[in-house]
Amino acid sequence: MNKKVVLSVLSTAVVASMAASAFAAPKAGIYMGGNVKKYYSTDVVLNMTKEARKSYLENVRLAGPNAVVQVDNQGRGAFLQEILDEGRAKAYEEKLVKEDFIDLYDVVTLNGTTNGTEDAKSKVDPTPTGDLKVDSVSAVDALTLQVKFNKEVRLDSAQDPANYKLNGAAIPGGTATKYELQADKKTVLITLPFANKLANNSTYLMSVSGVIGVDQKPLAAAFNQAISFNDTTAPTLGAVTYEDINTAKVSFSEPMIQLAGASIRIYDETGADVTATGLEPVVDGSGFAIANGGKTITLDLTNAVANKAYTVKVYGAVDASGIGAGTKTFTVTKTSTDITKPLATTIAATGLDTFKITFNEKVVKDAANSGRYGTVSIDNQTAFDLVQGGSVAALTLNETGTELTVKLSAPLTGGLHTVAVNNFVDASLNKQTTAFSKLVNFAADVTAPKVTGTTVQTVGGADSIIVSFDEEIKKASPVPANAITGGKVVSENVEYAVAPFGASTNLYDPDGDGKSNMLSIALPAGSKSGAYTVTLAAGVVEDLAGVDNASGSLTFTYNPTTSSSKPKVVDTDDNPNNGASGVTAQAAGAPNEITVAFSKEVTDATALNVANYTVDGEQVFEKAVFVGDKKTVKLTLKPEAIKATASYSFQVKNVADAAGNVMDTVTFIQPFTETVTPTIKSAAVAGVDTLSITFSESMDADSLTDNDDFELLIGGVKAAGTLSVSGTGTTYTVTRSTYFTADDLNKDIQIKVLPTTDATDASAIKNALKGDVVVPVSK
After folding, report:
1. What is the rounded distance in angstroms from the CA atom of residue 562 to the CA atom of residue 582?
2. Helix (H) or strand (E) holding 89
3. E strand or H helix that includes residue 40
4. Pseudo-torsion of CA 239, 245, 247, 250, nearest 10°?
5. What DSSP element (H or E) covers 11?
6. Closest listed residue to residue 104, CA positions, set 88, 89, 116
7. Residue 139, Ramachandran bin (φ over 0: left; ψ between -120 and 50: alpha; else beta)
8. In whole angstroms, what is the distance from residue 348 CA to residue 371 CA?
9. Cα(464)–Cα(498) distance, rounded to whole angstroms?
10. What DSSP assignment string belongs to 619-667?
11. How far apart are CA 134 and CA 645, in angstroms?
12. Are 537 and 484 in contact (CB under 8 A)?
């Protein structure tokens, strides 16, 4: 690396950065990562001593150009390598992100020594994530569909079968189909039963809608995309793993067709088939080592000779698409140099019915004894197996296998109890047969959940207090009349009393996993801006042991006029896939009108702009007005805008409040009723005193048979007598009180729809038949 070039580049960048004023961002200067981990401020870079400059250049070399970040006083920056390659202006175009920095840098002084640390990473704004959308959908294999989102999504929403469709219908398999949100909270795997596997070389329409992000924002738009499943690759086997010394497992890369245990053979070093009891594949009740849709082969090595390699051959394996794997060969070895028995090191109670056992190594289920984790005796009573059921309500082994949590079916009395554990085994199947006994103090949880923080957020469209606690909570029962018993707010240097509120509260569970340590209390409408001090009532929530919260003070600041709370269309279940509760449908008497209710007041310029409301992407509204307040908009459809009664994608966007907060675009699957005006399709003389009339659609018979909708014209003159109407559907008969004459039939005959007609079609919204229309009658 040319030191002069590097010094020139970095010095020029630092000098250029001085023209801008500083603001909340990483401090200007040079950040050296890698093994150097040092920060040089702009002042130090320009004024350091000669010896310090030598050290500076050496540190640049040691860190390398891909680990040195230069930041200017505007918070812009780039890696040295990017500046060298692209020039400073181009390199600055891409914003700095947290991942560009290490956790802490030592701060270098003018003389080259260090004093304190600098945390640049914490000062970088998080990368905007944008609207929630589906990144991709794919068929992983014949039984697995994968849906990837660009942001984290709620567990309940992600695993709701109603949010996914295949070819316009529910994904097959019913309750046997699994929907599983993965650890990244962005990926959902949908696993079909074998009977509903995807057909090879087929294309499917995958639809995703209604999924909600952990920020409570729904999918920006429903996702519909064709996906293809084309399997031409033979399945492969992965590596062999050992659950314990007597159990080996190996898995295929994809779901398989059922494979008989007899198709798996084990050979010794001479090539002799030694498959036998205790050295064989584990099979189900029907003799299959892999059931339909399974992947994993389990081998029982109980009778294998220790440290001896065996060759296993799998014959005739076929994947779910019918592609053969060919003969697969791998080796297994029953290896164990571990002859030390596992030890229990501590037993500690966490409640009257729960205790944890800590081991010095991984323990496993004892397959020879009903899969138990050993035995336990309490107060020298008869020992019972550590398996779920009977005396044990639940068992949880941590990921490392070294901590077992035991929840008893019945709580113990408070105080000291002797707990003895025994007969537990490690992965080498060494069994501990000497009991580990400890005197354990069991005490009821009497510690109330404590408030750890209070913020104001928007929940369900309403500005709400979010109260965080130090443990998982649930709503108490019974609950007090109001969660907030009162308090004060200081607004514009005036103190006002705050009346009790919060008769209705909800647990706040942003990720939808069914667990929460936060309570949501909606602020009353019209709450003043200012600094609040209010009292949380006792007994609003309780912890999982049933201990109520104590009354306490909450403080927070609220400013509704500058709140970042965005308006949204009211929807009580936050599921756009089933329409919005805040959208009032068309109705008889107002077939061309719908109303949209917003969560807060919105502006004329945005809410009354009909371009912000579309149906299936089309601008179908001709007018928008507020009704009642500035939260409710009445939209008027253009004539005959809705051609068929169906559910359409109804999108609302760009609507803002007075503070300039713009709503997140939302698309609802909303039912609309057709607004096509019914017409007379044809009219003909049907008898000596009757006409047959056919309408363009089914009509409301009651609206026609009241006999006040038509008059008959013969030769352009209203015919004498009265008309009566009968019929259903689209076909009606009009009967005259007098007969047609030969002279009548020689003239033009017409039927006129009177201007005063009240006839309507048979739809739910009763579209009106157009009046003052004359229709020729054929003879």
Report:
1. 24
2. helix 88-91
3. strand 38-41
4. 0
5. helix 3-17
6. 116
7. beta
8. 23
9. 15
10. --EEEEEE-SSTTEEEEEEPTT---SSEEEEEEE---B-TT-PBPPPEE
11. 29
12. yes
Structure tokens at 734: 């009009």
pTM: 0.50
Check: CB of residue 323 under 8 Å from CB of residue 283.
Answer: no
What's the one-letter identity of residue 722?
T
Letter for the amino acid at 296?
T
Phi/psi-derived region of residue 554, left when phi > 0, alpha when psi is between -120 and 50, beta in every other case: beta
Summarize pLDDT for 663-705 with one digit per residue, the tens: 988 888 888 988 999 999 999 999 999 999 999 999 999 999 9
- Cβ neighbours of 333 (radius 10 Å): 17
Virtual torsion, Cα 678, 683, 686, 690, nearest 10 deg = 70
Rounded (5°) CA angle 386-390-393: 70
- Enter the tokens of residue 500: 């009790």
- H-helix or E-strand spanning residue 605: helix 604-607
Closest CA relative to residue 10, chosen from 35, 29, 27: 29
- Amino acid (1-letter code) at residue 179: Y
Residue type, 414: G
DSSP states of 447-495 as a string?
PPP-EEEEEEEEETTEEEEEEEESS-EEE-SSPPS-SEEEEEEEETTEE
Name the one residue in this structure whose structure tokens are 């959902």.
188
What would the two tokens of residue 496 be?
Answer: 């006002």
Q: Which residues contact 117 (CB under 8 A, 6 or more apart)?
A: 104, 105, 106, 107
Q: State the Cα–Cα distance between residues 92 and 135, nearest whole angstrom.
A: 27
Kindly report, residue by residue over 599-628, the tens digit of the pLDDT: 888 899 999 999 999 988 889 999 999 998
CA atoms within 13 A on the CB side of 133: 11
